């Protein structure tokens, strides 16, 4: 087989083409990227779970009441200590999200609110999962009948990735606790994101961050939708909410500002998906849509408005006086055919364009086959399918209309038995699709894999790019597949021709510059189980990319259904080899392994 690459000419790929989509699904944020270690910090989740009692019914009684000092989350925990000198103390513990990761020598900031019927010593400890080994401990005197805020640094003297936080007392008294938070000292850029998981995102060099969902934005019913105003301000004052689509409570420490901050910290353009007055089972009619429109406008003012504006001033008060720069918003998620969406859409669209003419608007309706029923800058396209379909998807947008809105493939993934928890086969299908996206990037300007994260203890959706537990994480082949495309944003797509009889081979070529040099990358996906001898011929007039040496990077595995795992995180990863040009050989001759994705950098 021969790939002929014309090194001159070509077409510029949009700067924004490949980014990421973060959804609060699978405990991706709460118990994941958001580094808060306490689950159900305000006891608002409908029960006190996962908090549990230390002591028995003769020594302690646990209940909740609505005496909190926080107006929007009134529930507090009441602990009646029934014994004096209770051995080891009685009270409650929180195991976090399937265990807290506590590391020896590291510091953790504990904040909680407490009041008591009479002066009592309260001991806060970090222990192993059994509670028997103490990793850190401190005792404070709660002397006041009024709520007081306690802020304490705990330094770990030991390590456990299944640790818990205990709050105990040992003298007869009634104590109330609320808004208990434990944060590691070191988080990504000091902004509360779990370091190892954030670094996985950095390694994808995402051009944009779409957030916060997905169906998470919609909710099963509207009261469970993500409404940004409930997620801003001091975290202890946020009410939290039950995400009824993915079926878990979030304290909303990872709120609207934190999403914007994450985008800024990753150098990614924020793309905000807001609720369009539509949930999966309930929709707002045009007569009552105005508050939702106002919420969207206020959300834009919070992000983009000056610190002197009403909502911009709240952003400034939260520590970010400079405006963020939202340039693109989506009116809802997958709502096109749900009741009232199309009726309400123009109201949102017109209000946004009037107040923020430069902000681009994404419609949930599909414009790939026929014109949209309303104006939009982008249409949102989601595709989940078997691997062979994805290989063919390389041509999905070849015939799509070029006049009208651009396409945003905001969710794509191979799913089902071809993918399991994240197979090589899935990654190959997706890689072929992304080569097609590069080819169609005159139309498709944005694309992101979905979902991004899963806590392995709560896999609501399979597969996901980055599975993790409390202390470790790994990339699936679909995660590493995306790394083959990180140089594509803003690069030049070269004209190339593949001459082959191999049945399932697809290739593309790009060039890009840094301040010193010009680089050329050829990518080849072999979806077949036979190896291919490939000759890469660089043609055209651009002599700066003629080859002397090439870095060949390949991702493959013995079995196409192989997966990475926490125990074997690097079974399928890109492997790099340097190839020197053999004397007298003009063109690069390489063997493309069966079931592989390969790049060659010149
Ligand atoms: O990515 C998982 C889900 O798939 C998203 O929440 C939704 O938009 C889609 O149906």
From TrEMBL:
Enzymatic reactions: Hydrolysis of terminal non-reducing alpha-L-arabinofuranoside residues in alpha-L-arabinosides
Lineage, highest ranks first: Eukaryota, Viridiplantae, Streptophyta, Embryophyta, Tracheophyta
Family: Belongs to the glycosyl hydrolase 51 family.
Gene Ontology MF term list: alpha-L-arabinofuranosidase activity
Keywords: Glycoprotein, Hydrolase, Signal
Record-annotated membrane-spanning stretches: none
Species this protein is from: Kalanchoe fedtschenkoi
Alpha-L-arabinofuranosidase C-terminal domain residues: 410-596
Enzyme class: hydrolase
One Pfam family it belongs to: ASD1_dom
GO biological process: L-arabinose metabolic process
SUPFAM superfamilies, alphabetized: (Trans)glycosidases (SSF51445), Galactose-binding domain-like (SSF49785)
EC number(s) reported in the record: 3.2.1.55
Protein name per UniProt: non-reducing end alpha-L-arabinofuranosidase
């Amino acid at each position: 087989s021969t790939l002929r690459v014309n090194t001159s000419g070509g077409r510029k790929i949009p700067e924004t083409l490949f980014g990421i989509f973060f959804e609060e699904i699978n405990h991706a944020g709460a118990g994941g990227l958001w580094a808060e270690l306490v689950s159900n910090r305000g006891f608002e989740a409908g029960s006190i779970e996962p908090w549990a009692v230390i002591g028995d019914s003769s020594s302690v009684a646990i209940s909740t009441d609505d005496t909190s000092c926080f107006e929007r989350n009134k529930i507090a925990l009441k602990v009646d200590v029934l014994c004096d000198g209770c051995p080891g103390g009685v009270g409650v513990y929180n195991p976090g999200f399937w265990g807290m990761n506590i590391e020896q020598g590291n510091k953790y900031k504990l904040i909680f609110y407490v009041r008591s019927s009479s002066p009592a010593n309260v001991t806060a400890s970090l222990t192993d999962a059994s509670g028997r080994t103490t990793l850190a401990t401190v005792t404070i005197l709660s002397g006041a009948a009024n709520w007081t805020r306690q802020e304490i640094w705990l330094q770990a003297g030991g390590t456990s990735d299944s640790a818990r936080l205990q709050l105990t007392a040992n003298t007869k008294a009634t104590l109330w606790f609320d808004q208990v938070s434990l944060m590691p000292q070191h988080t990504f850029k000091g902004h509360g994101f779990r370091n190892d998981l954030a670094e996985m995102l950095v390694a994808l060099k995402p051009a944009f961050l779409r957030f916060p969902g997905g169906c998470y934005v919609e909710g099963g019913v509207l009261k469970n939708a993500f409404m940004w105003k409930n997620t801003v301000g001091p975290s202890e004052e946020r009410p939290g909410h039950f995400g009824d689509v993915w079926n878990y409570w979030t304290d909303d420490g990872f709120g609207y500002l934190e999403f914007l901050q994450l985008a800024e910290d990753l150098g990614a353009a924020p793309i905000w998906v807001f609720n369009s007055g539509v949930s999966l089972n309930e929709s707002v009619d045009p007569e009552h849509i105005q508050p939702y429109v106002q919420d969207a406008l206020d959300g834009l003012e919070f992000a983009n408005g000056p610190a002197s504006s009403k909502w911009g001033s709240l952003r400034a008060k939260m520590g970010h006086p400079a405006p963020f720069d939202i340039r693109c918003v989506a009116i809802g998620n997958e709502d096109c055919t749900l009741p009232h969406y199309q009726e309400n859409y123009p109201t949102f669209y017109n209000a946004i364009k009037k107040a923020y003419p430069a902000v681009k608007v994404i419609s949930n309706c599909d414009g790939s086959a026929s014109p949209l029923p309303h104006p939009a800058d982008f249409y949102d396209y989601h595709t989940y399918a078997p691997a062979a379909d994805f290989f063919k998807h390389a041509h999905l947008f070849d015939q799509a209309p070029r006049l009208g809105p651009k396409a945003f493939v905001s969710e794509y993934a191979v799913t089902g038995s071809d993918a399991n928890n994240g197979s090589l086969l899935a990654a190959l299908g997706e890689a072929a699709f992304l080569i097609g996206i590069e080819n169609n990037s005159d139309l498709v300007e944005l694309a992101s894999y979905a979902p991004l994260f899963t806590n392995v203890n709560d896999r609501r959706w399979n597969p996901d790019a980055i599975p993790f537990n409390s202390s470790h994480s790994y990339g699936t082949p679909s995660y590493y597949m995306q790394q083959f495309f990180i140089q594509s944003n803003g690069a030049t797509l070269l004209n190339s021709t593949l001459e082959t009889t191999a049945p399932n081979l697809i290739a593309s070529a790009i060039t890009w510059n840094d301040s010193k040099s010009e680089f050329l990358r050829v990518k080849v996906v072999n979806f077949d189980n036979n190896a291919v001898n490939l000759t890469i011929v660089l043609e055209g007039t651009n002599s700066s990319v003629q080859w002397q040496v090439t870095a060949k990077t390949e991702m493959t595995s013995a079995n196409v259904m192989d997966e990475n795992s926490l125990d074997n995180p690097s079974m399928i990863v890109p492997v790099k080899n340097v190839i020197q040009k053999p004397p007298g050989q003009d063109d690069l001759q390489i063997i493309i392994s069966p079931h592989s994705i390969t790049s060659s950098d010149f």
